[in-house]
Amino acid sequence: MKKIMISGTMSGCGKTTVTCAVTRALVKRGLRVSSFKCGPDYIDPMFHRRVTGTDAHNLDSFFCDDDMLRGIFARYSQDADISVAEGVMGFYDGANGAGSSHSVSQCLEMPVIAVIDAKGMSESIGAVMKGFLEYKPNHIAGFIFNRLPESLISQTKHLCDEVGTTYFGRLPKCDDISVGSRDLGLITPDEIQGLEAKADRLARLAEENIDIDRILSVDTALPVCAPAKAPYIGRTVIAVSRDEAFCFMYPENIDVITDMGAEIRYFSPLRDKELPECDALYLCGGYPELHPGFSANSSMRESVRAAVTGGMPCIAECGGFMYLHRSIDDMPAAGVIDGCSYRTDKLRRFGYITLTADTDGFVKRGTTFPAHEFHYYESDDCGSDMTADKPWKGISYRCIHSSESLFAGFPHVYLYACPDLAESFIKKSIAYGQNRTDNRT
């Protein structure tokens, strides 16, 4: 199996567009492609799924140590002809050395093709390449040049020869098929009309301008590692929110709780009238504020409120946490948390954190695990049962509602990196289901 990372010199350089172009071209050639995204992002993997027709997974070296990262990669790449990972931010950017594309590529011994946005540059391209090649030991195999004019191809190839690297091609300027954004984040794939046709056009541009054969010929070594798998605990049923308003869920989280024994029953807070029969509830993140149907669906709001206040174990992240409030802006919500979630004019929290439990609640006091936040919305009751730390920035604050049955807050968690949280969730779900069965008999 082959593997390659498409990273970039900075955020916004075009690495998502290039990744989608290359992976679509590989799929069009009939290859089985496994897709990955470095870092904690949800939306880029959504595009990968639509482009490749298979699931996409995250590779995050802040969430995971090297052994876990290798195990996750082994699990989700084992049936592919080639694995393609998209980088995050600039190639070397991360949280105090962790979470970067560079760290992931070093751990997985993954060759890297770096994307340079060449708009407005000519010979300066050489300086950028030389800096990235020499800054730290790396696996950079060469470069792809986004928005490089045809008139500069010959000069750019010469610059690649001068610095001793490979010219893998370019992607011409194509603003009509770029991915849009809003202040809350990127537009999701379901919001883009004609996405399949745009992906096919990207594939054609890749075949015409990028040396796909050379990408496939890059020599790769695969670290030997057993695929990651969480230990089985016991059978239970967990309801998981899934629709256009609640769509931010790591598929790895589903696999972890499934490994542990959970049967997953998906439901829509927008359209379903009540929760499915279940022993626990997982409310994932998303954009509920953009879909007022959650508020109009009073029977589902009441079903969730009754379940959670009645002691059903529940994990609620970001948008799911907002849904548990009394209201989101002026829209009535589930009313489990006696507070309001409201829009602000700036990004409130962004980036990696380490959470430490300050009380015995959903997890034991002193339990620590990594998490990530990204939200413009705020709450007048964020919780205070855990401390979030960014020691590399000297930042610390309280957050999270953590009780015997509820774990809710703005932070997103990655369950491979939170085994205590995952195990607690499954055990509480099993106990709740057993108590419900006993009460019925």
Describe this structure in words.
Strands 3-2-4-1-5-6-7 form a 7-stranded parallel beta sheet, sandwiched between helices. The protein has a 6-stranded mixed beta sheet with strand order 11-10-12-13-23-22. Strands 15-14-16-19 form a 4-stranded mixed beta sheet. The protein has 13 helices and 23 strands. It has 441 residues and is α/β, with parallel strands linked by helices. It is elongated, with a radius of gyration of 23 Å. The model is unreliable at 181-185 (pLDDT under 50). It folds into 2 domains: 2-217, P-loop containing nucleotide triphosphate hydrolases (Rossmann fold); 236-440, Rossmann fold (3-Layer(aba) Sandwich). Helix 9 (251-259) links the parallel strand 10 and strand 11. The termini are far apart. Helix content is 32%, strand content 26%.
Mean pLDDT: 93
Strand content: 25-35%
Strand count, sense and barrel status of the largest sheet are: 7 strands, parallel
CATH architecture of the largest domain: 3-Layer(aba) Sandwich
CATH names the topology of the largest domain as: Rossmann fold
The CATH superfamily label of the largest domain reads: P-loop containing nucleotide triphosphate hydrolases
Q: Whole-number radius of gyration? A: 23 Å
Order of strands side by side in the largest beta sheet? Answer: 3-2-4-1-5-6-7
User: Count of helical segments?
Assistant: 13
As for the number of domains, it is 2
Tell me the distance between the termini. 54 Å
Rough outline = elongated
CATH top-level class of the largest domain: Alpha Beta
Helix content: 25-40%
Total strand count, please? 23
Main structural class: alpha/beta
List the uncertain runs.
181-185
